[in-house]
Design brief:
Blueprint lengths: L3 H37 L18 H9 L3 H5 L3 H40 L8 H6 L6 H10 L20 H53 L3 E8 L3 E8 L4
Antiparallel strand pairs: 1-2
Helix pairs in contact: 1-4, 1-7, 2-7, 4-7
């Protein structure tokens, strides 16, 4: 089951894709209008009478988008769509490093809190130690619990290095809340990684769709626009423009 943070990451990617589609549709419409005008003026004709088209998308652009979302679209001339994918990726990276940085700050805060309110000696402690001190009032209660469960190996030496004694129950509970906050921010970073992977997959699939679309359009339009000039003594000069546009 995906939690709230995971749904927010996926929703952000989908909204970005919707905006990319809308902006790219407007951009493509403008390009089609300009291309039609150039074709009618004879400016988009090659020496063989075929319309010149921009450099088509290729398979390498799909791999570009798989590694850096939007880079394939940018390289293929789909700048609007490429910028959206790239913007989503940058935002996700900022969110990822920001979540880890904030989790690290919370970790420093709860360690300092335990030092102040439980007399903990912080250097060299394992992650399990920081978990254990949040569930027991002091080291003696903890060791009694381990001894009762016959887990002698799990006991801590009753020395100043491992000693702790919470000054109040409220502070122990507050310590646990801080530690859980750190875990939640680390989970957010994990969901952001899922969003980064999703953005790469969707960007590559989008580039594949563009590649196939351009291949079909290139094949359909390669010989549909041409000029025809004829001269005869009876009819004189005849100039025809043949235009068949397939979508």
């Amino acid at each position: 089951m995906v939690n709230k943070t995971g749904r927010e990451v996926i929703l952000a990617v989908l909204i970005g894709l919707f905006l990319a589609g809308s902006l790219q549709a407007q951009h493509d419409w403008k390009e089609n209008v300009l291309a039609s005008r150039r074709a009618l003026n004879g400016l988009a004709l090659s020496d063989s009478g075929k319309a010149q088209s921009p450099s088509p998308a290729s398979l390498k652009h799909i791999f570009y988008s798989l590694f850096v979302p939007g880079s394939g679209q940018l390289a293929a001339g789909k700048s609007t769509r490429g910028k959206v994918f790239l913007g989503i990726d940058l935002a996700l990276w900022v969110s990822y490093f920001g979540s880890l940085a904030y989790a690290d700050k919370i970790g420093q805060d709860y360690r300092a809190f335990a030092t102040l309110h439980a007399g903990v000696y912080a250097p060299g402690k394992s992650e399990q130690y920081w978990i254990d001190i949040g569930y027991y009032e002091n080291i003696y209660r903890f060791n009694e619990s381990r001894l009762h469960n016959r887990d002698i190996a799990g006991m801590y030496p009753e020395t100043p290095e491992y000693y702790w004694q919470w000054d109040s129950e409220n502070n122990r509970l507050k310590y646990n809340d801080l530690r859980l906050d750190e875990l939640n921010w680390k989970r957010r970073a994990t969901f952001v990684i899922s969003g980064l992977i999703l953005n790469r997959i969707v960007s590559a699939v989008d580039m594949l769709r563009i590649f196939r679309k351009e291949k079909r359009e290139q094949s359909a339009k390669s010989s549909l626009l041409y000029f025809d000039y004829r001269y005869s003594r009876l009819e004189g000069e005849t100039f025809k423009v043949n235009l068949l546009w397939h979508w």
